[in-house]
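Researcher: I'd like a structural prediction for the single chain below. Treat it as a standalone chain; there are no partners to consider.
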Amino acid sequence: MKVCFIPIDNRPVCYGLAKDICALDEDIELFIPPREYLGSLAKYANTDIIFDWMYHLPEMDAMIISLDTLAYGGLIPSRRIDDSYDEIKTRIENLKPLIAGKKVYAFSSIMRISNNNYNEEEKEYWKDWGKKIFEFSYNSSKYWHSPQTDVPHEILQDYLKTRRRNFEINKMYLDWQKEGLFDTLIFSKDDCAEFGFNVEEAKELENLGGKTKTGADEIPLTLLARAINKDINIYTLYTEPDYKDCISNYEDVSIEKSVLGQLELGGFNVVDSEEKADVVLVVNNFIEKQGELVMGWDTPLYSKKFIPPLKPYAIADVRYANGGDNGFVNQLFNSDINLPRYGYAGWNTSANTLGSLLAGLKVKFKAKKYNDEAYKKLQIIRYLDDWAYQANVRGLISEPCNIKELMKPYEEKIIKKLYAETDYPILNINYIYPWNRKFEIEVIM
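Model: Treating it as a single chain, here is the predicted structure.
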């Protein structure tokens, strides 16, 4: 199976994770642009060279495309770039002849509204006016009129102009869909609240026939799962079943709806009992409020005795955003429980965790040429990143630094558990900060 995959940007979870997941089945031949072509925190993707790269591809069985990369230069540039609607339309029109008649799974973001004064991923003025712009958006949506605000007029107008431009581009993609250019088109809702301009735009796109989905970075991976034609029955088991109606941080739907949405988009069959399932999806959900160690938002750790399902299973660890749950994961490594056959993930938001986990599950399930070493590598990286670093080591450092010694005890524990205790390899693992910030690391193996 030949798959073209255009990521959002060059982060490990957008670029390397797709490669690691596809490596589980050697029958999948992944075509992904060279990493240097893609955008980063401060650099926009080289769209001209990516279009040229796509032009020279052989015939593909599926094309998974992050439209933001080709239209704006990436997800972050979509919020920053000052190009006009006409300039962006002219650029993205280059895509049409490259996808005509192909099996195309595409997504475009609905521009997010961050409730903070951090401008790392936004325009410069967000450092002073981000929270005020969020409040203006929230109250405009909630009360259906423009409230009073002390955001300077020129800043507010620039922000609204950027939003309108991106929204018009998204409506253009709906016209493309009517022309039959997309097998699947998804509009992502990133960092959502109950009200806001992004919520209103999502409703309008839905009224026009579009399909929206809470999440962002994981959606290309969920679309990868959708492109892989395998019939899999999934039963979902929540560690806190009485709280599956609670809403995750950075999302606007309950954790149960988030799970069902990812399963539906990924092309899975949802069944109502473990007996009917091929794989059980264990969701380590939260009680009332999702925690987040980085923000100091606490929530009760998992404290019950975990009894694995009888069927093969996978674990979506969403008790905390941006990091695994020590109460749960420590049980996996400090007991005789076998690690899940279909993977663990606890990356960033609930949607990020679910989408990436389900993609790996879909690829591994009845893989034509299964590679077990690739699976072990994938799991080592996920436990080291999602649990060891995000839930533990990240809190011990104040800035990017050499974390090799801090990570070593976790490396040993993870490798011993994944391999037989008496027959595990000595692996050379290193860590870098690809965007020179604490938020993400890259595990080099």
